[in-house]
């Protein structure tokens, strides 16, 4: 039998049936243990236990005593495992397996044996609960429903069956043909359905009426190909749109083009094309920057092996330069961990063959003539106006220039009237100059450090002239194109939220109502780079784009070329015969038109019912989800979509190397339970689509989706991100900036759209505070509100996820309730959605403050901070919000050491005797003056820091004086002014024109009333003798004002002083942040000087 290391067994087993058998010790002696076990009935056991007092179990816990007793889990002797077919009566002899088989009744009280972890349970129910929790894959694979021989026909299956019958009515033996298409149905079942089923007869009648009511294939101009459009003789409504465009074209802005009457609108001939090309080259030549020729970047020297110190210096230099140039790129580099990897650079010669083959491959021949979705949208041909182009220019953000090296600022220097005339000319002619068809393609790695050309994303940029024009057209088309409601990409809606919530609701509705659900995630391989140019024009015409605009789009891609740019090297021009430019504003809408066409071919009667709406797909650009309530319905949808995408040159990726996946929730009606089928069910292009098991997840739009709904891996992302921020060569303020602006918002996307527990959010907040405490070397008793309060309230401005995420969840869900999407309107009525909305709408309390939105959360955090011992001195911080920018902007204004010290001064977090004695009996007196040594005492009154305090005062005045001089103010420094009450020496006098300001600076205690301090300064210098003296020494001044520069030692400026600096002196508001930072920096120097100094007043001899 073998022995356990902590107990020896000696037993003889005669197996017949299971029965509970208990070994009891009424009064256990030391070293004895009560054990409950299940043993076979009519079995004789001889058991000897030699248990010693100091013996421990295999897990390391104590063995002896009542606390080790567990009656729910049975641990059998080693080697004791009942078999499924035979059992052993003497550990070697076989007996009838029926004697050991437990009952199939779900409520059976017979014991259960877990084969995975060798545990026995009192009942089969306990075993199932254990397996579902600890071994979910085993549980779901063992509980798959058996196929039913006489299963009912679902509505979805009958629809597909009816369409197959209608399409093959002329076949002689129709029943046999349908049996081949539906092999899982018997021939008798097919005959019965066709002959007697009333629901099927009704579906057949509806489908026949639907097909007879559809008109023949459209033959209008909007369904013709580009070749047919070019050969058409008459364009409807030509006179109206053409005349409007001509009226808005100023020929004075066109270089030697001639009269517009020579051009036929919407039908560019070869002479028209030549004239437009010549005119554009002459016009743009005067606006191109000089020296636009490309200079290749100098190749990096061959890498040599560096020691650790040199490597660290190189990494620091590279990250700091990247942080200055592009903080977003720096954040991506740091958080991905690529900052410490010296990966080899891409080589143009390695990647060029792959992308040349990709671009030069011919587009698929698409000769379809789809039915138009509505009327022709002639409003898109309205002339562009100066206001429209000007608004687009203003809202466009700067980016990389195109091949002509013309930047956005360069385009803005061109008169808008000239741009409008040229744009309307190209719209009128239906032709774009060939000079605008060239592009620069930059290859961006999808995976950091990869050298595989297939894992690079091509981003093509054309001239800014072209991008502005196409953006104007795209803004018009966004509000006009009748795209399907399920396509959410590149539209002004919260498309990601719509699709994720739709998917979550489908999954939970299926499990709650025990209905089968099939979900297939489809990914289109190289979608933007493979789409047919022919399909773009046809799909656009299907949506109602007017023929002249279709002509423009059809002429946009022929003779189009691009140059690959890799590490500063540029290839020769490559002809592009398929695909759209990822970087052109018009490309997303053209791509959406093709995808909408393919998705519209899906059977509207196939899908999942949500209320009164049926949904069969979700789409976000090329990320497509198909849903159905039956297996055969999903097969039909996959085949339909794959067939239509192939005609546009697109292919669905499947198999082991593809990104597609499927998930099937199947239902056992008798057991009233659902399971996940782990076996592949579907194929596309003869390749199996991998199936997700109960433990596997699929990442869709950044959210992990599984059978439980939407999951997030925020804990992993945060842990890895904090570790990279800690290791990367960054300054403390840079770490805080990247955490606040990049890492935490990255977490919010997953946390808001997925399910997360409150304790998980609390754990994330604790992890963030722990990292900040390490970076800034803050004490452990730092107030929690100091981390999370807004910077303008005195905190660090770090988001508190525990309270922010529920608010964001509620806001996003409330927006869903206002959606006009029919499916979303039905979704918000589901119990699952309403329960969650009610949960997140409950009012939470933080420090007795009700938290209902971000403003109330900010007020609660500020209240917690200002009522704490260390934070009460920051109550005046919100009077001047801009003074706290230095805390959050991540600028290199201070060194890392000084920034940490300034933050500690701001939060009263530097160690002193008073702070160290909190809760302890310790000496708190200053060793210099025998007063309580608090931070306020060190910075304001201690004689040892008298000199540094003068330096702090002078540095503030010097900064204000220098900045005022830049604004043409004339300064007088510390003038000695005689008055009737004695000599007065104000810090500074500033004069300009007919006005002068007398300024006196003071840094007060953090608990002082700064308004009273300001009024005291004004009262001291508001003297007629002083004003007369200033008028005499400042010629031309007839008005003198007295003010003060008042702040406390935490860097909080008085509101009146801030108004004087920005409004009266005209200094930029950024100066307020610099002054606040300087006060805190000098305060840190004061603290350092105090602890370095040795001056003492208490041991000096008294003066006689």
From TrEMBL:
Segments of this protein annotated with the region Disordered: 80-108
EC number(s) given by UniProt: 3.1.26.4
Start-end of Polar residues biased regions: 83-108
Pfam families (alphabetical): RVT_1
Keywords from the named record: Metal-binding, Nucleotidyltransferase, RNA-directed DNA polymerase, Transferase, Zinc, Zinc-finger
InterPro entries: DNA/RNA_pol_sf, Rev_trsase/Diguanyl_cyclase, RT_dom, Znf_C2H2_type
One term of GO molecular function: RNA-DNA hybrid ribonuclease activity
Domain of life where this protein originates: Eukaryota
Transferase listed as a keyword: yes
PROSITE patterns: RT_POL, ZINC_FINGER_C2H2_1, ZINC_FINGER_C2H2_2
Keyword Phosphoprotein among record annotations: no
Residues covered by the Reverse transcriptase domain: 425-705
SUPFAM superfamilies hit by this protein: DNA/RNA polymerases
Enzyme class, UniProt record, top EC level: hydrolase
Transmembrane segments: none
Domain C2H2-type: 114-145
Similarity comment: Belongs to the beta type-B retroviral polymerase family. HERV class-II K(HML-2) pol subfamily.
Protein's name in the database: ribonuclease H
Taxonomic classification: Eukaryota, Metazoa, Chordata, Tunicata, Ascidiacea
Gene (name only): rt
